[in-house]
């Protein structure tokens, strides 16, 4: 599954301008190969971008870059989403085992105790923008990495949220009528899907 820029931005918490800057400076180039727009991101890209956006709330981009360089020096060259990065006070670590973390920014190689942060939870960016929970961006919308490649769906179903939202968007179908099209979708979940789509559209405006 591939994610267009507006949805990748909304799900990750990285602004559209940050995505462009990070592509140009090789912080994160989408793994779905594309030499020119429209750029498409994988779900793994979104997890990595979300981690960077979360770290960026407390740390400079230079420190994040240094951390990525240290990962490469340690032969940790898999996709950045493969590694669980944690905040270690004014530094950044990579989760090792138990509650240990290896500092990969200010004191590379130093082992310390670090809490494994949940970057999937709701958080606030450095620009004080609220980033929705990744797994549950709305009560009736959920993201399951094992369902449709992580594309947001109506909770408890395989129905993409945007199919439902598009039905409601022009007002010709009401949330109460959605069951005629999708029997497993409640009116409340339909409203949540439309609200989520509108939040994505306003996010890119």
UniProtKB/TrEMBL annotation:
Which Pfam families is this protein grouped with? DUF433
Residues folding into a coiled coil are none
Q: What is this protein called?
A: DUF433 domain-containing protein
The source organism is Herbiconiux daphne
């Amino acid at each position: 599954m591939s994610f267009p820029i507006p949805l990748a931005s909304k799900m990750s918490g990285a602004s559209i301008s940050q995505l462009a800057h990070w592509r140009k400076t090789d912080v994160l180039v989408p793994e779905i190969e594309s030499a020119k727009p429209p750029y498409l991101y994988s779900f793994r890209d979104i997890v990595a971008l979300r981690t960077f956006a979360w770290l960026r709330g407390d740390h400079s981009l230079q420190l994040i870059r240094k951390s990525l360089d240290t990962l490469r020096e340690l032969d940790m060259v898999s996709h950045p989403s493969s590694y669980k990065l944690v905040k270690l006070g004014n530094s950044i670590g990579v989760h090792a085992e138990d509650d240990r973390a290896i500092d990969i920014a200010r004191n590379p190689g130093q082992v310390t105790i670090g809490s494994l942060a949940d970057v999937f939870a709701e958080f606030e960016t450095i620009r004080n923008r609220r980033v929705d929970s990744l797994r549950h961006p709305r009560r009736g919308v959920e993201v399951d990495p094992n369902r449709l490649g992580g594309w947001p769906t109506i909770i408890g179903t395989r129905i993409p949220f945007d199919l439902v939202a598009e039905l409601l968007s022009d007002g010709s179908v009401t949330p109460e009528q959605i069951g005629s099209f999708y029997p497993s979708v409640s009116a409340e979940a339909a409203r949540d899907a439309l609200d989520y789509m509108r939040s994505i559209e306003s996010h890119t405006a």
